[in-house]
Amino acid sequence: MQKLIRITTVPSSLRTLLKGQLNFMRSHFNILGVSSSGDALLEVEQNEQIATQAIEMTRTITPIKDSIALIRLFFLFRSVKPHIVHSHTPKAGLLSMIAAKLAGVKHRVHTVAGMPLLVETGTKRKLLNFVEKLTYTCATHVLPNSNGLKSIILEYKFCDDKKLKVIGNGSSNGIDTSHYNPDLVSEKTKNQLREELNITKDDFVFIFIGRVVSDKGINELVEAFNELSKVKKKTKLLLVGPSENHLDPLKEQTEKIIKTNPHILAVGNQKDIRPFVCVSDVLTFPSYREGFPNVVLQCSAMNLPCVVSDINGCNEIISHHQNGIIVPTKSSEKLKNAMLHLIDNPSEKDKMALNARSNIQNKYEQQYVWEEILKFYKSL
Known about the structure:
- The chain folds into 2 domains: 3-174 and 366-379, Rossmann fold; 182-363, Glycogen Phosphorylase B (Rossmann fold, 3-Layer(aba) Sandwich), CATH 3.40.50.2000.
- Helices cover 46% and strands 15% of the residues.
- It contains 16 helices and 12 strands.
- It is globular.
């Protein structure tokens, strides 16, 4: 059986972004999962039933640690002799594509699921442009997980079109709609959660799921909701996800509003988001940049209309006023207006909700995405 190495920078990405896919692929390949060490890597080994290898990598620019990781990857690839090395996330992509090329790996695949460089400027932007181009140069195949990302890659001339391929309709892993199904969450569970969070059935609940950082549009979302909650008293904003103040801190004013506005409920990271989605009415996701956002797929599969920013990925999943509303990035005013529109027009909101799940089932069902990735592997 041919050997396939899948690699991410941190193990939580391997566990979450590729959940189920690694187990599916092990029927066709001898798979090794590579990432930094951590409990999540042990979970991958157990849940996906594959071998794993810890190689420490960082998400920031750390030349000495990066050099050590590059050397370790090179010797790993030389020893294992994989048919394919397939990377996700920027740092793992850079290091593994260089190491795989030096080690003589024939098929070097990198999935692009977002570009942090798009929000950078100046010297840092130039450095990140160089790093992106170097990653793609060392890869034999580049898989942007949305058509919008493919267009950006071509616009900035990071690589030739012949290296690029979007799998299926987009997405790195698809969505298991049998899991993200609102019918699986009981009324008892929903009522218990509402009671815990002090949410009444009359409340209109907006939810954000993801890293609670500036890059995800949290400053604009909190500002928009803070103004909205002054005129719409029966509203709540759920913030579900971890903060990363060491990497992308929020504005001081935003932090203050989150702490002082009783209508904003920051519940941190949650292993199962489904109950939180089921007590919500609308997903608000005003991110500055994405590849193909899983959160929008997940919430849509659970019949939630989505207010999203007009960026690649989001504007491919959401059709304006069909299954959600698309707003400009970094505009708290337009975001607030969209949120108000959905509160004031319940029949339109309900119509969007009806369209949301069927769109995901038709285009992004997980089994279909896995089969398309397997088809790509077998073509190599």
